[in-house]
Amino acid sequence: MPKIRPLSEALQKVAIEELNEVPERIQDDIEAIRSWIKKMPHLKSRDDDQFIITFLRGCKFSLEKAKKKIESFYRVRAETPEFFANRDVCDKTLSEIMNFGFIIPMPVDENKPEPRVVLTQLGDYDPNKYTFVDIMKVTYFFGDLSMFESDVTIVIGTINVVDLRGCGMNLLTQVTPTLIKKLSGLLEPFPVRVKAIHLVYPPKALDMAFSILNSVCHEKLRNRIYVHDNFEKMYEQLPHLKHHLPSDLGGTNSSLDKIRVDLKNLAMDRREWFLDDEKQFRYIPPKDSENSNGLFGVGGSFRSLNIDYSVLSFRKSFIMTKLRTLHNELAKVAIDEINEVPSRIQSDLEALKSWLKHTPHLKTRTDDQFLLAFLRGCKYSLEKTKHKLDLFYSVRQNTPEVIRNRDPNNQYLMGMIRQGFGLPLPILESPASPRIILVRPGIFDPAKYTIQDAMKVTTMMLDIMLNEDDNFVIVGQLCILDLAGVTLQHFLQYTPTFIKKMIIITQDAAPGRLKGIHWVNCPKGFDQVFNLFTSFMNEKNRSRLFVHNSLDSLHKIIPQKLLPTEYGGEIGSVESIIDIWEKRILSYRDYFKEEEKYGTIESKRVGAQDNSSTFFGAEGSFRQLNID
């Protein structure tokens, strides 16, 4: 369980609906970010759960955006020591500034899904005694406290109310172009959603103040700036703000003096946190990185202000790719059963691609639809997805007899395809039903073909379904295992090692969900066969095995309208289904040839290398198998 503050029911609802939070995935997402932090030599970042969840929520659980925001969070702090160095709350100047509270986060009820109101009073300090830099240092004190202490701030966001009374030229002339750019850059890394900015008591120099504010805000926020003549008129339009603001300003909250004292006391309580933050956590710029001039430009006066907004953004633009659209019923299964959040798919894919770029021993496909199959097959656990992708290619690297030389134009291989050993059936019971796969291990001549040949064709069909069949990936597969025609000669081809290979390839390394295996036409001595196969299956899949004494028994589970004619069904003959799959496999010839270049390079793997013994144990025959 992640070590984070539990959200109230109301906040949790907002987090799920607006921030794409999936409670079951939080731990995996936190671990993914923590793992990334550890691999960043230039970044000395906090990695406790509460710190990481703050950025995940602030980035709507986009892992790539969270990484960039954490990096920017420390980078801009390293480039602006005037704001973030020497942050001792006991410093005399800082303590005095906290007494009059330039920017004051209002008290908030953490159980209510309402934005936190932050009050700014520009005229409350003497610009001849304190610098704007000092003021902003205290502002970031309170910003950090609000961000890391208040879940409302992160989950719901803030409303900023700016009291412009007393805002004169003495203040405005302290705001240089470089300072404005720095303030703009410092807004970006904070994982807080600003819902609105309300300017109250606009001065005569409003145009100048508004220009400064516009230059600091991004476009979306500039559209959320409102101007009010006074607090009374603001309350007329926005009565809900009244209970957030202090009694001194006509609100119903505590007095400003009490709120300031409470905030200062909180800052004092967290003194060690600020000191520890400065000592241990920092950004160490790589040699080729931009310096502060690159980020913020050179200094200058307010009169020469000329802002290039392009330098203010640290965002990466993601190119949305085309993925197959799901049927509504199937999309609901994806959301309800495998934790799919449609708005997060692109960022999850980017996280996976980023990991692959930094995993030198893996040579894999990176197209979105392929990677999406693994995310879905692992219920969007990134760590499980990484493991399964690694296993998928590692096992294939160690089973060349099954994976290599899969050219369907090869006459011998086409002969095996024409046997119809394994056949995904074309009809589904509903748009959200599992794919039914008919497997007939006794259909081929064991004097001509081998079980390795059969498994080679099986992997070809598996590859096609991973790329084309959303029902197979999302809902899973329902297998009918027909043992008609199985002989001792078939059975003797099944060495313990090969059975284990089949199970790992189809159960552990493939991103599919097994919904059940239904055995029909079972011969005498079936118990031995059954025990042999189940000894290699995991407990969950063993619980999904069913043996039928007749087709009538099978029809009670799988309707006849979904089965071939030979099984009392209505979808046509097995031969007609073989024809369909023959054409489909031939259409994938280039794909199978391309697959030859993918796999693992064990010499580049960090840690212990994998080989066939790692996965399958020592080679052996069926006679050596010891089964309980």
In short, what is this structure?
The chain has 628 residues and is α/β, with parallel strands linked by helices. The chain has 32 helices and 14 strands.
User: Helix coverage percent of residues?
Assistant: 40-55%
How many domains make up the coordinates? 3
CATH classification class of the largest domain? Alpha Beta
CATH superfamily of the largest domain, called what?
A: CRAL-TRIO lipid binding domain
- The name of the CATH topology of the largest domain is Phosphatidylinositol Transfer Protein Sec14p
The biggest sheet amounts to:
5 strands, mixed
Enumerate the strands of the largest sheet in spatial order, edge to edge or round the barrel: 2-3-4-5-6
Tell me how many strands there are: 14
The average pLDDT score comes to 83
Distance between the termini: 36 Å
Provide the descriptors you would attach to this structure in a database record:
single chain; 628 residues; disordered C terminus; elongated; alpha/beta; Phosphatidylinositol Transfer Protein Sec14p; 5-stranded mixed β-sheet
